[in-house]
Design brief:
homodimer, 361 residues, alpha/beta, Rossmann fold, Dehydroquinate synthase-like, alpha domain, 7-stranded mixed β-sheet, two-stranded antiparallel ribbon, 13 helices, 11 strands, 46% helix, 18% strand, globular
Chain lengths: 361, 361
C-alpha cells in the first residue's frame, strides 16, 4: 500500500493506494466519529463489492446503512440526492454518521454533495471503484449534481477524510470505462508531466490489461499531480483550472449529446484533441505533438474526434460553462506535452477551426 | 453607522448597523468581483425595498437581476431553491456574480444556500430586513432549506462577504414579526449577558416602538455576542450550540404544528420557557429567574407556553434534531440569567415534567 497526503491545512487527508484495501476496515475505523456509517453505492457496484465492505465494517462493530442508487450519469440529479437525504433522515443519522461513497464519479459526486449538505455537513470517505474516480474525481473535494441547464452546476467544495483507491477492483471494470478513466490519466501527463506521458506511451497495454503494478504507478502519479494542484488552489481561483484541460469542449460535447450517451472520459478525450488542435493553431505546439496525443488516445481506445455538433451550438454550450468568467471564455491550452496554461486571448478564427473538427473525422 | 467584524480568518467579514444603509451602494460595491448581482427577495419585501436597493446599485453601473420568491417559511424548500438556480442559469450568471439576500431569515437561509451551492459557491451579501435576521440568522453562515422530515436538515456553512443591517426598515415590519425577533434578542441576553438582559427589561417598550437608537444598540449587542460565539466555533462543534438555547424545544414545536403556523421566534420563546423550566427543575436557576424570563417575553408580546403537543410526539420530534448526537439528547440549559451550558445529563423525570407544560398554560 502507498499513501499520499493532500495538504489542505485543517482539511488535509490521506489517499491510500493498493490491492484489496476495500475489505481492510482498519483503514476506515480511525476516521469515524461514531461506529455508524451510511454507504452510498449503485446497483452495479453493490452486486460486486458492497458485501465485502459492509461485512468488514460490521465485523468491527460498525452499524452500516446501505443506500443503493440506480447506475448512470442521468441519476446524478436532485431526485436521487433526495433519496439519500430521505434514507439518512429515516434512519435518524446525525452529524456523527460517516457517509462512504463506494463507486465511480457519479456516486462520489452525489454522495459527496449529500455529505456536504446533510445537516450542513457530515464526515465523508471516498472508496472509488473506477479508474476515473481513483485518478480524478475522488480527489480534490468537488461534489455536486447536474442541472437540466448544465453539468455539475449545483455543488460544493467538500473534502473527504480519507480516500481508499483499491486497484484490484479495476479488474471488474468494463473495458469502456477503463478507457474512459485513461483519458484523465493521459490528461495528468499532458498538463504537468512529460515523463509520465512517455511512461504511458510505453505502458498503455499493461494498464489496459489491469497489470496491478502499472495501475498502482499510474494512480499514484495522477493523485500526486492532482493533490499538488488542489493544495495550491483548493477553490479553483487559479492553477486548479489546468485540471480542466479538454473539459470546456468535453462538457459541451456531453451536454450537446445529452448526459450519459458518451462517458465523461470519452468526451474529455475528444475535448483534449480539440484543445490540442487549438493549441497547434495558436502556434503553441507542433503538429507532431498533436499526432502523439491522438495516437496515445487511440491506443487507449478512446474517441479522438468530437461528434457532429453545430459550432454555434458548441459555443452556446460552452458559454454557460462554470469556467466562463464575466462573459469571456478562457481556454486551457498546451505549451508543450507536459505543460498547460490558461488563455483568455483565443481569437475567433482558430476557435472556429477547432470547432469545425466536430463530426469531421 | 456602527461596524463590527466577524473574525473568521480568510472568511472574516463586516457587519454594518445603522439607519438607511439600504440605499448606500458604496458599502456594497467594494465587495463585488464584477458589477453584476442577483438580488433574492420575496414579494412582501420587494414591494417595500427592492426598488431602493436596485436603483442605488444600477445608478453605480451594476447589472441587477431580481429573483422574487413567495413569502413564507413553507417556501423554504427545494422547489423554491431550484427557482433561484434556474434564474441564475437562464441569465448566465457565473462564479463572479454576487448574490444578495434582501429579506428575513427564510430569504437569507435559502439565498445563502443557493450561493453556497451554485457552481460550488459564489459571493454572497446579506441585507436582513427583519429583526430576527439582523440579530441572528444573517450572522454566522448557517444556510439551508427544510426537508419534510425536519427543519434546516439540508444546508451548508457559508459565510457572507458583508452584512448590512438597516434598522430603519424595521419600521415597516409587522408587530408580530418584531416580537418574534425579540425572542432571539432576549436569548442573546439569557445565554451570555445579564446586563444586556436587564437593559432589555428597561427598554422593551422603546424597542417595540422602533426607537432607532434602542434598536441599533440591541442589534449591535446581539451581533457582538453572536459574532464572538461563531468566531470561537464556526461549525458548531462546541460553544456555538449555546445559541440554540430554546431551539431544541422550539424546533419540535414548529415541526409539530407544521412549519409556518407559529413564527420561528414564537416557537423559540415557548421553547425558552420550557428550557428555563427544565433548568429550574434541575436546580440550576431559581423560580424567580423563570418568572423574570416569562415576564420579559410577555412584555415582548411572545407566547410563554407551548401549544398542546403530546410529550411522546415532542420527544420523537426532538430525536431527529441535528443537535442529537449518537442518539443521546443534549440540552442547552441556564446556570443563571446571562449564562448557559450544554448538558447531556438530563434525567427523564424533569424532562417529562417540562414537556407536560405543553398545552398546560
Amino acid at each position: 500500500m502507498q499513501t499520499l497526503r493532500v495538504e489542505l491545512g485543517e482539511r488535509a487527508y490521506a489517499i491510500h493506494i493498493g490491492e484489496r484495501l476495500l475489505a481492510d476496515a482498519g483503514l476506515i475505523l480511525p476516521q469515524l466519529d461514531l461506529p455508524k456509517v451510511a454507504i452510498v453505492t449503485n446497483t452495479t457496484v453493490a452486486a460486486l463489492y458492497l458485501q465485502q465492505l459492509t461485512g468488514a465494517l460490521q465485523a468491527r462493530g460498525v452499524d452500516v446503512l446501505s443506500i443503493v442508487l440506480e447506475d448512470g450519469e442521468r441519476y446524478k440529479d436532485w431526485a436521487t440526492l433526495n433519496r439519500i437525504y430521505d434514507a439518512l433522515l429515516e434512519r435518524r443519522c446525525d452529524r456523527k454518521t460517516t457517509l462512504i461513497a463506494l463507486g465511480g464519479g457519479v456516486v462520489g459526486d452525489i454522495a459527496g454533495f449529500a455529505a456536504a449538505t446533510y445537516m450542513r455537513g457530515i464526515p465523508f470517505i471516498q472508496v472509488p471503484t473506477t479508474l476515473l474516480a481513483q485518478v480524478d474525481s475522488s480527489i480534490g473535494g468537488k461534489t455536486g449534481i447536474n442541472h437540466p441547464l448544465g453539468k455539475n452546476m449545483i455543488g460544493a467544495f467538500y473534502q473527504p477524510r480519507l480516500v481508499l483507491a483499491d486497484t484490484a477492483v479495476l479488474e471488474t471494470l468494463p473495458a469502456r470505462e477503463l478507457s474512459a478513466g485513461m483519458a484523465e490519466v493521459i490528461k495528468h501527463g499532458l498538463i504537468r508531466d512529460m515523463a509520465f506521458f512517455s511512461w504511458l506511451e510505453q505502458n498503455m497495454e499493461k494498464l489496459l490489461a489491469c497489470d496491478q503494478d502499472a495501475l498502482a504507478h499510474a494512480v499514484r502519479r495522477c493523485c500526486e499531480i492532482k493533490a499538488a494542484v488542489v493544495a495550491a488552489d483548493e477553490r479553483e481561483t487559479g492553477v486548479r483550472a489546468l485540471l480542466n484541460f479538454g473539459h470546456t469542449f468535453g462538457h459541451a460535447i456531453e451536454s450537446g449529446l445529452g448526459y450519459g450517451n458518451w462517458l465523461h472520459g470519452e468526451a474529455v478525450a475528444a475535448g483534449m484533441v480539440m484543445a490540442a488542435d487549438l493549441s497547434r493553431r495558436m502556434g503553441l505546439i507542433a503538429p507532431a505533438d498533436v499526432e502523439r496525443i491522438v495516437a496515445l488516445l487511440k491506443r487507449a481506445r478512446l474517441p479522438i474526434a468530437p461528434p457532429d455538433i453545430d459550432s454555434g451550438r458548441m459555443l452556446e454550450l460552452m458559454g454557460v460553462d462554470k469556467k466562463a468568467e464575466g462573459g469571456k471564455l478562457r481556454f486551457i491550452l498546451l505549451d508543450a506535452i507536459g505543460s498547460a496554461s490558461i488563455r483568455a486571448d483565443v481569437p475567433d478564427d482558430p476557435l472556429q477551426q477547432a470547432l469545425a473538427l466536430c463530426g469531421a473525422i
